[in-house]
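Attaching the record inline, Q. Sequence:
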Amino acid sequence: MGTRQRRLRALLGLALILLVAVVGVDSMVPVRYTAIVRQEAHQRRLEPALVAAVIRVESSYRPTVTSSRGAVGLMQLMPATARWVQKESGNGSSPSLNLTDPRQNIALGAWYLSYLLARYHHNLILALAAYNSGPSVTDGWLRQDRLRWNVQSGVDIPYPETRSFVARVLWYQRLYRLVYGIA
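Structure, as predicted:
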């Protein structure tokens, strides 16, 4: 790492400390359901900071939130996707699907995120793009050569909303590692 990169990291670190001091750590990077996040992340071979970051970006840790498109809960799962995950993960298609239940939502969301990582050959950018826009959209971008399998950043993602989602998740993932040591 060069001198310029070290200086930039130091400046970003100071800016983060100031921001956290002014805004407050819990309002900026809340952490709740830590035991569930850690358990499900480890079970799915995911970094807990990644799961925590997806939850932060998707719902700001509000378990009962529903999006305008119908996504529900902490990890903002579409009910049809959640039922598919429930079936594919071996948990059956129980009529007791409750996406506002933190344990159930995080378990299903972590399984789905792990599935997407495997599907996209552990390329985090593609997996997060698919989490946000859907695998069929991401597959279309790949087929049309609008994204490449070796993509390293989200700057080339065609949808601004998805591009922003990926950038925000990656940013919060770093914050969760730094602030809480969640790794």
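The radius of gyration is 17 Å. The chain is about 65% helix and 0% strand.

More tomorrow.
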